[in-house]
Design brief:
Elements (H helix, E strand, L loop, with lengths): L10 E3 L1 H11 L22 E2 L6 H7 L13 E5 L5 E5 L3 H7 L5 H8 L3 H6 L4 H15 L4 E2 H11 L5 E4 L4 E4 L1 H10 L2 E3 L7 E4 L22 H9 L4 H8 L3 H6 L5 E6 L2 E6 L3 H6 L9 E3 L11 H4 L3 H7 L7 E5 L2 E11 L2 E8 L5 H18 L2 E2 L1
Parallel strand pairs: 1-10, 15-16
Antiparallel strand pairs: 2-4, 3-4, 5-9, 6-7, 8-9, 10-11, 12-13, 13-14, 14-15
Helix pairs in contact: 6-7, 6-8, 9-10
Length: about 375
């Protein structure tokens, strides 16, 4: 049962302890290759964003899972979910994930859909019902694996004007992008791993009764978005969770776990799940990994309290630019620089931007990560 944010006695921790806790919860301290099961990663509870060549599988590799970029584990599945981005999940969890990512209200659906909500409102169409209608149309169209462009063309012909926009870059009219993406999983459609442009296909065994269903999951049910985010990115606040999910703060606050415990992080009022409190406090004694080459969209970089992770404004701008994000070099629990890949002639080089002096041990650890990334991509280390 959810309630407003907890008002119990506040536990105080410093910034370093909070970040060390996130590192441990997200298993970034596991040794490379220590987990042979591709589904053995806690971040899959909330989905691992699969953007760019060092996306979801590299995020799993950094957390000890023995995978490479060429792997297509059948136990993993990909779908457009949070923020309309592709995410990897355990295939066995897809039905519960679809239920968890249903909008909680029309206001929530409208916020997730961005500018697509305006013409729908003008036409008297509720955003939740719009997603359901698009999902049903998608299901009818995608009988065989279908390239995104072909599906978009078919949807444009099938949907009323309120669902469509004139796209200047494309020079044509098509579906609003977020509506298109967010409806796909509700249609029982997954993304073919590694396809570009994306190919969508029906998820085997998907029940017809779930196509376009709109009843939201109750708070605390499996993969509850608020609870899972609070676990993976805590200590945090309803405002930061709402920003992460593209949801209204009101909806997040209404679903805030009743067992959330108040935590003060260097003067920042925050919360953590009661079950995570002991681990949070004990994280003060942790050191964390020597180095990790985090991908640009690594789960730990997705937290919206970016000033906690990277306090310096100029460095935050370098880590999260509007276009062309670099990867981040993590040492222990601190981001100490950025990296960008350069591949030529089957060899992978890194362009590094250290923010602080790197000692010999850190440079050796980064070099080891460079070798792991090259092996992951199936190229030689330059």
């Amino acid at each position: 049962m959810a309630s407003s944010p907890a008002t119990k006695a506040t536990v105080a921790v410093d910034r370093t302890t909070a970040l060390r806790h996130r590192v441990r919860v997200q298993q970034l301290d596991r040794a490379p290759g220590s987990a042979t099961d591709p589904t053995d990663a806690t971040v899959l509870d909330g989905g691992a964003q699969d953007t760019g060549p060092d996306g979801a599988l590299w995020a799993l590799a950094l957390r000890g899972v023995a995978v490479t970029a060429a792997d297509r584990p059948p136990t993993l599945a990909y779908a457009w979910t949070l923020r309309g981005a592709p995410h990897a999940y355990r295939r066995a969890d897809l039905r519960e994930v679809e239920h968890a990512v249903r909008p909680w209200s029309d206001a929530d659906a409208a916020k997730r859909m961005f500018d697509a909500a305006r013409p729908l409102k003008a036409a008297g169409i509720a955003p939740t019902q719009a997603l359901a209608q698009v999902a049903r149309a998608m299901r009818e169209i995608v009988v065989q694996p279908t390239v995104k462009g072909d599906l978009s063309t078919a949807l444009t012909a099938a949907m009323p004007e309120a669902y469509l926009r004139a796209c200047r870059p494309c020079g044509t009219t098509h579906m609003y992008e977020q509506t298109f993406r967010l409806a796909a999983l509700h249609a029982g459609l997954e993304l073919d791993a590694g396809t570009s442009p994306p190919v969508l296909r029906r998820i085997p065994g998907w029940p017809s009764t779930r196509i376009g269903a709109t009843t939201p999951a109750a708070p605390g049910t499996p993969f509850d978005l608020v609870r899972t985010t609070l676990h993976l990115l805590g200590p945090t606040t309803p405002q930061h969770v709402a920003a992460y999910l593209d949801s209204p703060v009101r909806d997040v606050t209404a679903r805030w776990p009743s067992d959330a415990v108040a935590v003060d992080v260097d003067g920042r009022p925050s919360h953590v799940l009661a079950e995570d409190l002991d681990e949070l406090v004990s994280a003060a004694t942790l050191v964390g990994p020597a180095a990790r080459l985090l991908g640009p969209y690594d789960p730990i970089l997705q937290a919206r309290d970016r000033d906690l992770l990277v306090p310096d404004q100029s460095r935050r701008s370098a880590t999260w630019p509007v276009l062309g994000r670099p990867g981040a070099v993590l040492a222990g629990s601190e981001v100490v620089g950025t990296w960008r890949p350069r591949t030529s002639g089957g060899r992978l080089a890194l362009v590094l931007d250290p923010w602080v002096p790197w000692d010999h041990a850190l440079r050796a650890a980064v070099d080891e990560q460079h070798a792991l990334l090259a092996a992951f991509r199936g190229v030689r280390q330059a």
